[in-house]
């Protein structure tokens, strides 16, 4: 009886520790966050990112966490809408998911919509620091998840005029799909232009207040190389709903 009880105790622990479906464990550790490479026209007055908010590059430490392997799809978001009565994206006619678009990333969702979905799914939005840690994998100081090689249509969905593509249509890097391109992804953080210089060295979570929420990863509409690099930061008002913006969720590794 004692052996049987011990077996079921171990079995229950293993079941509780099972990997969350559709998520990838991002190991904790220290990494160099921010842009550590130079743009040829960085000092030119008309440089398209005059705020220069992706510097200074600093080492930060992140606790391990789980991250959705793909952006939340229309199919998953439709289940949330049906279960909770939450508003649907405005382009869904009569609140119904567009036919044949179940595998496409949910877009036209505000920050509040994305946060509500993640909470319903037992998760939360990733912080900017977590998102960048996941996108970088084991590569430091690189422009893209795969290194510094020039981005191509085989790597990501970008420079399109007719919207995103189904998630994971370009394969995975480090177990994750579409960290670059397809749709911009909401982060949990308020946006702070000079936050990188003042952020804590461990698990930074962004400013405590703000007017905008941070976005990462670029979208189907953007052109390389600027907006599609790992380090590039964008922002939008929390209530904005755009065809170029979607999200994915995270959760602590202990859950």
Written description of the protein model:
- The chain is α+β, with helices and mostly antiparallel strands and 255 residues long.
- The chain has a single domain (23-252), classed as paralog of FGE (formylglycine-generating enzyme), CATH 3.90.1580.10.
- Helix content is 19%, strand content 16%.
- It contains five helices and eleven strands, in the order H-E-E-E-E-H-H-H-E-E-E-H-E-E-E-E.
- The strands form four sheets. Strands 9-8-7-10 form a four-stranded mixed β-sheet.
- A hairpin with a 2-residue loop joins strand 5 and strand 6.
- It is globular and about 50 Å long.
- Residues 1-17 have low confidence and may be disordered.
Labels describing this entry:
255 residues, alpha+beta, 4-stranded mixed β-sheet, 3-stranded antiparallel β-sheet, 11 strands, disordered N terminus
| CATH A-level architecture | Alpha-Beta Complex
Number of separate strands: 11
CATH class: Alpha Beta
The fraction of residues in strands falls at 15-25%
By DSSP (H or I, 4+ residues per run), the number of helices equals: 5
The mean pLDDT is 89
Coarse shape: globular
Q: Roughly what percent helix?
A: 10-25%
Instruction: Please mark out the parts with pLDDT under 50 across 5 or more consecutive residues, or reply none.
Output: 1-17
Q: What's the helix-strand series? A: HEEEEHHHEEEHEEEE
CATH topology: paralog of FGE (formylglycine-generating enzyme)
What structural class do helix, strand and pairing data support? alpha+beta
Our count of domains comes out at: 1
Q: From the alpha-carbon coordinates, what is the Rg to the nearest angstrom?
A: 19 Å
């Amino acid at each position: 009886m004692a052996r049987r009880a011990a077996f079921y105790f171990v079995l229950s622990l293993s079941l509780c520790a099972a990997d969350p479906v559709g998520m990838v464990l991002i190991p904790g550790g220290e990494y160099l966050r921010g842009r550590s490479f130079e743009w040829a026209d960085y000092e030119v007055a008309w440089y398209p990112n005059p705020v220069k908010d992706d510097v200074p590059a600093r080492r930060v430490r992140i606790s391990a966490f789980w991250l959705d392997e793909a952006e939340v799809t229309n199919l998953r978001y439709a289940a949330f809408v049906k279960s909770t009565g939450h508003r649907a994206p405005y382009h869904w006619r009569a609140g119904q998911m567009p036919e044949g678009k179940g595998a496409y990333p949910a877009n036209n969702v505000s920050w509040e919509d994305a946060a509500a979905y993640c909470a319903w799914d037992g998760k939360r939005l990733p912080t900017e620091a977590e998102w960048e840690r996941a996108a970088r994998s084991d590569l430091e100081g690189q422009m893209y998840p795969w290194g510094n090689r020039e981005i191509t249509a085989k790597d990501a969905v970008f420079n399109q005029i007719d919207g995103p593509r189904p998630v994971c249509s370009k394969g995975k890097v480090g177990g994750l799909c579409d960290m670059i391109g397809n749709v911009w992804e909401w982060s949990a953080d308020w946006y702070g232009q000079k936050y990188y210089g003042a952020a804590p060295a461990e698990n930074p979570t962004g400013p405590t207040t703000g007017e905008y929420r941070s976005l990462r990863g670029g979208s189907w509409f953007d052109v390389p190389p600027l907006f599609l690099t790992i380090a590039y930061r964008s922002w939008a008002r929390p209530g904005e709903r755009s065809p170029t913006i979607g999200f994915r969720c995270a959760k602590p590794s202990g859950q």
